Amino acid sequence: MIEFKNVNYIHVNGIQALKEINLSIKPKTINALVGSNGTGKTTLARHINGLLKPTSGNVLVFGKNTKKISVASLSKRIGMVFQNSNHQLFADTVKNEILFGLNNFETDSQIKKNRFEWALNFFDLKKYENTSPLKLSGGEKKRLCIASVLAWNPEVLILDEPTVGQDQVQKEKMLKFISNLNKQGKTIIIISHDLEFLWPLKPNTIVMAKGRIKKTGKMTDIFSDDELLNQTCLMRPQLLDLWMKLNIKEEPPGDITEATDAIRRINGS
Amino acid sequence: MKEKSIIKFENFSFRYDSANEFILKNINLEINKNELVILAGPTGCGKSTLLRSIIGLIPHMHGGEYKGRVIVDQLVVNDVKITDLAKKAGFVFQNPENQIFMFSIERDIVFGLENLGTSRTIMKERVDSILSLLKIEHLATKAPHELSDGEKQKAALAGILAMQPKILILDEPTSLLDPKTAIDFINIVNDLRKKIGMTIVIVEHRLDLVVGIADKLIILSNGKIIENNNPKQVLHYSNQLIPEIGIPVISRLYRNLAKSNYDFDNVIVTVKDMVKEMRRKKFND
Amino acid sequence: MVVKMYWISKGFIFTKVDSFVHKLDPRVKLLISIQFFTLALLVSDLIDLAIIFIGIILLASISKILSRLIRTMLFALLFSGIILGINIIAGYSFIYSLQIALRFVAIVCSTSIFFLITSPDELEYVLRWFRIPNDLVFAFVTAVRFVPIILLDALQIIDAQKSRGLELERGNPITRIKNFVPILVPLIVNEVIRSGELAEAMESRCYGVVKKPTVLYELQLNINDKLAIPFCTSIFILGLLFSI
Ligand SMILES: Nc1ncnc2c1ncn2[C@@H]1O[C@H](COP(=O)(O)OP(=O)(O)OP(=O)(O)O)[C@@H](O)[C@H]1O
Ligand SMILES: Nc1ncnc2c1ncn2[C@@H]1O[C@H](COP(=O)(O)OP(=O)(O)OP(=O)(O)O)[C@@H](O)[C@H]1O
Ligand SMILES: [Mg+2]
Ligand SMILES: [Mg+2]
């Protein structure tokens, strides 16, 4: 669905941020893009909805070359939420913020109404419908940004560092939103350094290093590889670490409840 | 007589001009010399506000209703200029974007030193050592807008570390760093603390990075300090742990197991502790 | 049109380029720019102007900034068109009006070339070297610094809003103006927050503690600079003689 073919990207200052990227992202999957600082994750994500065009090579999205279509028309199917919420919030009320993208992409007023209601409820923003976005807390602002993108029902959602500045409760809410969205058939791409946050999602993981893709695969496989972790500045999520250190053969648990059950089961027998 | 505490809040309350309610309510807090203290709490609970009042940005740059006193290294914050406090305390803000502004990172790193009239040789030494300490030599001559998000954060940290302050205040300093760099950074400041003597106050949502080395964990909620104790104590025995706190996964597992009548002989904060404990219990033999 | 404006404005953002000219001492860069500026002010006939343009374009190509200078040039041409028009309406001859208009472009180019090869940090060094008071230097340099910051923010915001389906070029003139709201509002909010936080960051790094802050590097002329000065100056003098 999203294909990178020999993509290279060179910034104006001559820094080559992407080197020979070949990547293919399948529909309805959750994908995590991880790697050390400055390896080109954000640069790669900006290629998917055409904000950046490859210096050489091609990015194909739904079979179309990003060089040939506008960002706005790509965005109808690819929603991107940026790191800094202040860069996109502008409306006087939460309601109008959500309606902005919806009005740009959707003409049918009944669908519009339904989508709007859906976004407001799904993201727990009903009570803020008429407040100014600027009055929301950091976590709520982020949620509003995601809501305003998902309102027009794009098939792909790209999130750049969604957990920065969020407390545990907000992170858990976000986790639920993401896995529910995925169950509804959305393809999700998350860029994050917060591996503990990513772990329960069991994403397909893409590891980058120095502008290249180092390895892709299941999180369990990638994070079992000590040498890879060392080279790419990653750390093993604690539950996987525990499972490996205790030499437990069965599938590592996704969250604490599963872990507690597993330990009680193994130990109880 | 020698004072033990270096930062002291006495019945401190603060309300921003534009707000109706007090953000911080009757805070009494002492932070001792050379301690590493974690400050945690839900978003919007006033962590950054508390930090701002240590270095005098409150009340000197943010108007509002100010009650009580804050004393930093024997200076009463209200009575001195921000720059007097800035000589003692370095502050790394939450958003790196808005604190690096020189056109090359190396100039930004020495900005503070230049303002203090430090000699050129010392500045050059400091820049070189900080750049290699944080492994960012390749960024020295770049401009802020040419950096990735994490690189900006590293540059912001470097600018404060170069000043070698007595007190180091870090507002979510690792939020954009990759996991390895985040741990390295925490270790670097901890080593510095031991070597040159430094008091560190750090706001961090991910406690797994810091609980191992911190002396105290302070939890702020609804404008009040609800917990102020050794991190291990707090993580394991406190009944004040609100769900917003990012307790390390392993400690949450420990608490869950302990609830279901598992007895542990020791307090657990790392995976290693847990493995040891499980082995002792002949787990999986 | 809007997009073109942004394309032009990107030409104003200083980017460090690895070139012979960029490595020169900023005072030498200033000297060169002043020489071009003076010549542009003095000359009048079209042939001389053409020579100056060739000089400017040569300098720009050695500094590898030609493509960005051209953006500025186009920007200046827009205004020079207006100047040309006014002059002709005012009754001057076409040739004379053209000279005035092109001279304007040459002046703009010689100024903007200085900003394209000199970073704000270097500019600060030069101003300090002229012993301009610290506060003035800082105010000026901060202003110069802020231009690219705001432009870059604007570009980021445009990116964010384009990803939400904003098309600036759509609709009748009134909707087109309305299209700007989603860009202007976050830009203003953002700059207000930014300037507040920047002020905090500067204060907490002891800004203004000593009257005379030190600086990391001392300006020093190296061999290239020492060769560049007589070289450029002799061309300048030749140019002066030629034009008078
Ligand atoms: N606007 C820019 N101009 C020039 N170079 C840039 C620009 N943005 C990023 N870079 C450089 O490109 C490389 C990749 O940056 P990118 O932002 O994609 O990294 P990242 O993987 O997202 O890192 P982080 O985890 O720190 O956000 C870095 O070396 C960075 O310095
Ligand atoms: N300059 C200001 N003027 C008015 N109100 C403010 C100002 N700064 C912060 N506030 C408000 O004060 C409250 C506490 O803000 P503060 O930034 O201290 O929270 P925090 O604990 O640091 O949160 P976070 O974890 O999200 O950074 C928030 O409700 C915020 O909206
Ligand atoms: Mg990034
Ligand atoms: Mg804060």
Task: Tell me what you see in this structure.
The complex is a heterotrimer of chains A (269), B (285) and C (244). Chain A has three domains: 1-77 and 155-224, Rossmann fold, CATH 3.40.50.300; 91-153, no CATH class; 237-269, no CATH class. Chain A has eleven helices and ten strands. Chain A has helices at 41-48, 71-75, 94-105, 109-122, 138-150, 168-183, 195-198, 219-222, 226-231, 238-245, 256-268, and strands spanning 2-10, 16-25, 30-35, 56-61, 64-65, 78-81, 156-160, 187-191, 204-209, 212-218. In chain A, strand 4 and strand 5 (64-65) form a beta hairpin. In chain A, helix 3 crosses helix 4 (109-122) and helix 3 packs parallel to helix 5. Chain B has helices at 47-54, 57-60, 82-86, 105-115, 120-133, 149-161, 179-197, 231-237, 249-259, 271-280; strands at 5-16, 24-32, 36-40, 64-72, 75-76, 89-92, 167-171, 199-203, 216-221, 224-229. Chain B has a six-stranded mixed beta sheet, with helices on both faces. Chain B has a four-stranded antiparallel beta sheet with strand order 2-1-4-5, covered by helices on one side. In chain B, helix 7 (179-197) links the parallel strand 7 (167-171) and strand 8. Chain B is globular, with a radius of gyration of 20 Å. The model of chain B has no long low-confidence stretch (mean pLDDT 90). The radius of gyration of chain C is 21 Å and the shape is flat. Chain C is built from ten helices and no strands. The model of chain C has no long low-confidence stretch (mean pLDDT 84). Helix content of chain C is 73%, strand content 0%. Chain C has two domains: 1-118 and 221-244, no CATH class; 120-213, no CATH class. In chain C, helix 3 packs parallel to helix 5 (94-117) and helix 4 runs antiparallel to helix 5 (94-117). Chain C is mainly α and 244 residues long. Chains in contact: A-B, A-C, B-C. At the A-B interface, helix 6, helix 10 and helix 11 of A face helix 6, helix 7, helix 9 and helix 10 of B. Bound molecules: adenosine-5'-triphosphate (ATP) (2 copies) and magnesium ion (MG) (2 copies). The site of one adenosine-5'-triphosphate has 14 residues of chain B, from helix 1.
